[in-house]
Amino acid sequence: MMKKLILPKFNDILSAAEKIDGRTVETPLLKAQHLSEKLSAEIYVKPECLQRVGAFKFRGAFNRLCRLTDVEKKRGVVAYSSGNHAQGVAASAKILGIKATIVMPEDSPRMKLQNTKDYGATVVTYNRETESREEIADKISKEQGCIVVPSFEDFYIISGQGTVGLEAIKQAQEKGVDLDLFMSPVGGGGLISGCSIAVKELSPRTSVYGVEPEGFNDVQRSIESGRIEKNPRMSGSICDAILTSHPEPMTYKIMSNNLSGVLTVSDQEVLIAMKYAWEKLKLVVEPGACVALAAVLHGKIDVSGKSVCLVLSGGNVDEETFIKALNS
């Protein structure tokens, strides 16, 4: 018998906002003037690359860890991530005095590996093509008695990530802007699931779109087929932060209910978007965090005459990849 899904609601996003208040950065909603003029639209960016640990992941991680009981905190936590969730959990654990072990792909960007270690976490690496990060984390959890903190399929993680959308809509309304489109990167779906709950509550007419890398469009295929689909491989794109095997039941259900569609972009289109963000927005954005901007820049969706919010979800990019983008 299938376990009944308990999905976050808008009040859970509000509760998360209270829990993380004072710990996170309320990132601004910035008008992308050049892009707005270029596309005859009102384009705004929500730069979570300016967030603590350089990515939105800190929001969900802190909301999850601060909900642990005192007994659970003493047991410690284990998480698995290609980097941004790793840093979010490690930084949150350091603040809360919790021991953290992070399972990371051996091909994770060096910056993300080092930053995670610098926050005091123990890092265990694995081969993402031949090993299962979930199985490794479960083994560590059983051996050490620590709590597993999933990267996206978790009530409090989703609620915490939803504060990005909560802030964006409120900031837009303060500017007198009625958003037509809200666009976000999609990996496992924690960010866009939480955001879509907030967006649909505060601005029901706003359409929510996700963006994935070409060849790793498991969410797009899952929504179109009506069942959870898997990616055939787990590496081969520069968008490491959003390469996941498949959506899980919670995020799949929320995304199926709330998303108007999912778009895809190529690695080359992402590199061009990264260069654009640096040149025109003066922001350093990592590949997986730049896919929504890439989709708009390359005409994957018609934004003419519309008000649009693009989430730039993180800025943890290796020097080599950034140089590649600047030379694209």
Could you characterize the architecture of this molecule?
The protein has 328 residues and is of the alpha/beta class. The chain has helices spanning 10-20, 33-39, 57-65, 70-75, 84-96, 110-118, 133-144, 155-161, 163-174, 190-202, 218-225, 249-258, 267-281, 291-297, 319-326; strands at residues 30-31, 42-47, 77-80, 100-105, 122-126, 147-149, 181-185, 207-213, 259-265, 307-312. A six-stranded mixed sheet has the order 1-2-10-7-8-9, sandwiched between helices. A four-stranded parallel sheet has the order 5-4-3-6, sandwiched between helices. Strand 4, helix 6 and strand 5 (122-126) form a beta-alpha-beta unit. Helix 13 (267-281) crosses helix 15 (319-326).
Low-confidence spans: none
CA-to-CA gap between the ends?
Answer: 52 Å
Strand and helix order: HEHEHHEHEHEHEHHEHEHHEHHEH
Mean pLDDT: 94
Strand order of the largest sheet: 1-2-10-7-8-9
Alpha-beta content class: alpha/beta
Report the major sheet.
Answer: 6 strands, mixed
The 3D shape can be described as: globular
Key structural traits:
alpha/beta; 328 residues; single chain; four-stranded parallel β-sheet
Summarize the structure.
The chain has 328 residues and is α/β, with parallel strands linked by helices. The mean pLDDT is 94. It has helices at 10-20, 33-39, 57-65, 70-75, 84-96, 110-118, 133-144, 155-161, 163-174, 190-202, 218-225, 249-258, 267-281, 291-297, 319-326; strands spanning 30-31, 42-47, 77-80, 100-105, 122-126, 147-149, 181-185, 207-213, 259-265, 307-312.
